[in-house]
Specification:
Layout: H1 3-15, H2 24-30, H3 36-51, E1 55-57, E2 63-65, E3 71-78, E4 84-87, E5 93-96, E6 109-114, E7 122-129, E8 134-142, E9 145-150, E10 158-161, E11 173-182, E12 186-197, H4 203-211, H5 220-227, E13 242-243, E14 250-253, E15 262-269, E16 272-280, H6 282-285, H7 291-299, E17 303-305, E18 308-310, H8 315-321, E19 329-339, E20 345-356, E21 359-362, H9 363-370, H10 374-379, H11 386-404, E22 414-418, E23 424-429, H12 434-456, E24 463-465, H13 471-483, H14 497-507, H15 513-523, E25 528-530, H16 554-568, H17 574-614, E26 621-630, E27 633-637, E28 643-647, E29 656-659, E30 664-667, E31 673-675, E32 679-688, E33 693-698
Parallel strand pairs: 10-12, 13-20, 14-21, 28-33
Antiparallel strand pairs: 1-2, 3-4, 3-6, 4-5, 6-7, 8-9, 8-11, 11-12, 15-16, 16-19, 17-18, 19-20, 22-23, 24-25, 26-27, 26-32, 27-28, 29-30, 30-31, 32-33
Length: 710
């Protein structure tokens, strides 16, 4: 009997029996292992199953499945307070205290054993894979010697830097370290590079990027490949492509954008609109398994922080030949769609093409043109009624999406203004005008069309997936909504996007809308990339993927590559299809993970810069809204999205206890209540850039004189 077959039989016996039924002798008898060689094979197989944490033995040497024994394997998540969680599924996790981590770090692959079967607390019994290899820290020179404080507060213990003697450091020098060893109370490190002084321009952002394994420099092999690519479209590259250079084509992006993935053409046909979405054909230049491709997949995405972009591709590509710059020819893949009066795509074509962008437009200028700005209307009169057609077509598409239940969380985003040295000058709300909505509508429309094309042709692909929210999370949200005066209607076990949107609409004009929108967003599952087309709940779509940004997202590049291989070049090789399907599964996990790292880096930089901005405002008072309530206090959000903590210990007018059912703090003597969505006046008492924290206290102004936001 082969080992694989034997493993399956052993597992079937153990899983389908009462706990503690089988020891090795009983298994040998049940499996008819009569010869010495059979018994040796059985023993080897059992040892391997144990080594792989698929089965375990109890103290009496009887076998259980790992889960029956309370043993789980997975990636651990450790928060800034030092304790960790091992997620079992979307709804359940194991809590691991700081003392029970046994040296495990965030994202490590670990084996965790429950203290008691049925509980949700356990300890790390083995670290299988270290997934954090580097860290960032700051040196401090004191009378007692040189010490290091690590940026990641989850790394705790006495720090030993092996190669410190080879480097010259002063107080405030920041460095990147390689983690050599983590023992119970000791962390051994080696310096890999000095980043500069913590007060040097840009070092703060660089430190966060490196902490998340995001590097600005490209390997020499990738740069050589990029520099060898012609910066002009060559005649032979146009063969087999549709010529779209006679069309009016525009790109619409932000004022500061330098890489242009997408361009638009549009024409009216009777009561319909013909819409062309031209996307940069990056996959033509970034070939599979080439140095550029290997580096692109390791990055997964471009990362955008306050004062810089860390691109997925070298600038010579992302801002050069791959960017749909104005007045020059570029290779593209075009999704051509006929949009009817109801905003439906009634027919489409997807094909390789080449274009010449007529104009590089900005969101600001298009918004002004739509508002009838005379100067800009005259400047771009050669484009005719292009923008009016775009607006009308987009409204059709948007109305159709809204009818189907697409959720608009309408969450306000911060725009952090920095000077040349990276110092924050201002924090404003990011404006989202009609032109931004138009481009969003067109991109979603193209993404849906390509997703349907890939799905129904059964082409291996990466889909953008957003699964239905868990009933448990929705019930928690419904409780909050009810406390705030609105009943959330719908079947929690099988909710529809339209029901979520109706609930948000009820709060639309109320001051607590940002809070309820954020809470609803947190109750949703995280979007991810997957080889299976599982739909997108938030957009109320059965088919969805990312096709429109191959310069900055690797999944889009993969979709282009699969389109070329199977749709344009008509590959029918069964083995190729199977291999690519397996690749898609692997890439779905990898690209989702890199996307999360990028989002976390962007969020950490934003939190740091907000704390920096508030450092010179200590003592000032502000209007705020309570955004979340916990037993240790509540968080408040200012009109410009800056968020900070009012600690319960600062509420010294009474003793406050946490009402978990009402998500509120209640004063025992005064009856004062602090609850979600409540408007309060707060005073800033601390802002720590390094820890990314902001602290407020409640300000009771007898005169109730409002202070203008700075």
């Amino acid at each position: 009997m082969e080992m694989t077959q034997l493993k399956d039989k052993i597992l079937t016996l153990i899983e389908n029996s009462k706990l503690g039924t089988y020891d090795i002798e009983k298994l040998a008898k049940e499996l008819d292992c009569t010869s010495t060689s059979d018994f040796i094979m059985l023993n080897k197989t059992l040892n391997q199953l144990e080594d792989d944490y698929i089965i375990a033995r109890n103290p009496k040497n009887f076998f259980l499945t790992a889960i029956q024994a309370g043993i789980y394997v997975g990636k651990i998540s450790i928060n800034r307070k030092g304790f960790g969680f091992l997620d079992l599924d979307a709804d359940n996790s194991i809590y691991i205290s700081l003392d029970d981590l046994k040296g495990a770090m965030d994202k490590d692959e670990v084996v965790v054993k429950l203290f008691k079967i049925g509980s949700n607390e356990g300890e790390v019994v083995k670290i299988l894979t270290r997934n954090t290899e580097v860290c960032i820290g700051t040196f401090y020179v004191r009378k007692t010697g040189i010490t290091v404080e690590l940026d990641d507060e989850r790394l705790k213990g006495r720090i030993i830097v092996r190669n410190l003697a080879k480097f010259r450091v002063v107080s405030g020098t920041k460095a990147q370290f390689k983690i050599i060893k983590i023992l119970k109370n000791t962390i051994e490190l080696e310096i890999t590079q000095l980043l500069g002084h913590r007060d040097d321009p840009g070092v703060d952002v660089l430190s966060i990027l490196l902490q998340h394994d995001i590097h600005n420099e490209f390997p020499d092999e990738a740069l050589k490949q990029a520099e060898a690519i012609s910066q002009e479209v060559l005649p032979e590259q146009k063969i087999g492509r549709r010529d779209c250079t006679n069309m009016i084509v525009v790109t619409i992006d932000g004022d500061d954008s330098k890489d242009f993935d997408d361009a638009i053409s549009i024409a009216a046909e009777d009561k319909n609109y013909r819409l062309w979405v031209h996307i940069a054909d990056v996959s033509y230049y970034v070939t599979e398994n080439s140095p550029l491709d290997v580096e692109a997949v390791s990055r997964g995405t471009s990362t955008y922080v306050t004062d810089r972009v860390v691109p997925m591709l070298p600038h010579v590509l992302s801002n050069g030949i791959c960017s749909l710059n104005p007045k020059v020819e570029r290779l593209t893949i075009t999704c051509e769609m006929l949009i009817d009066e109801n905003g439906e795509v009634t027919s489409y074509e997807i094909y390789p093409s080449y274009i010449r962008s007529t104009e590089r437009m900005t969101y600001n200028n298009v918004n002004k043109i739509l508002a009838k700005d005379e100067i800009l209307c005259r400047k771009y009169e050669h484009l005719g009624d292009l923008f009016l057609m775009m607006e009308n077509c987009a409204k059709r598409i948007r109305k159709n999406r809204e009818k189907n239940g697409a959720i608009d969380f309408d969450k306000e985003e911060a725009k952090i203004i920095v000077d040349k040295s990276g110092k924050v000058q201002d924090i404003q709300l990011r404006e989202r005008g009609e032109s931004e909505r138009i481009i969003e509508d067109f991109m979603i429309c193209a993404n849906v069309t390509v997703a349907k094309h890939m799905k129904w042709l059964e082409i291996p692909s990466l889909y953008r997936v957003h699964e239905q929210p868990l009933a448990k999370k929705l019930r928690e949200f419904a409780k909050v909504a009810l406390i705030m005066g609105h009943k959330f209607k719908g079947n929690m076990e099988d909710i529809r996007p339209l029901e979520v949107q109706k609930c948000l609409n009820e709060f639309k004009d109320e001051p607590e809308f940002p809070v309820i929108s954020t809470l609803m967003l947190r109750s949703m599952q995280k979007a991810k990339y997957d080889s299976k087309c599982l739909g997108h709940f938030g957009l109320a779509l059965d088919e969805y993927l990312h096709f429109t940004s191959p310069i900055r997202r690797y999944p889009d590049l993969i979709v282009h590559r699969m389109l070329r291989k199977y749709s344009f070049n008509q590959c029918l090789d069964v083995n190729e299809i199977k291999n690519d399907e397996l690749k898609m599964e692997k890439l779905g996990l990898e690209t989702s993970e890199r996307e999360r790292a990028s989002i976390e880096a962007e969020r950490d930089v934003e939190d740091m810069k907000k704390a920096e901005f508030m450092q010179n405002k200590i003592g000032l008072t502000f209007d705020a809204v309570i955004s979340s309530v916990t037993k240790f206090g509540f968080f408040v959000e200012l009109p410009n999205t800056v968020e900070g903590l009012v600690h319960v210990q600062s509420l010294n007018d009474d003793y406050y206890h946490y009402d978990e059912t009402g998500y509120q703090l209640i004063g025992e003597r005064t009856g004062t209540i602090y609850k979600l969505g409540q408007e309060v006046r707060v005073k800033l008492i601390d802002a720590n850039k390094e820890k990314q924290t902001i602290d407020f206290i409640i300000h009771k102004d007898k005169k109730k004189k409002k202070q203008r936001w700075i």
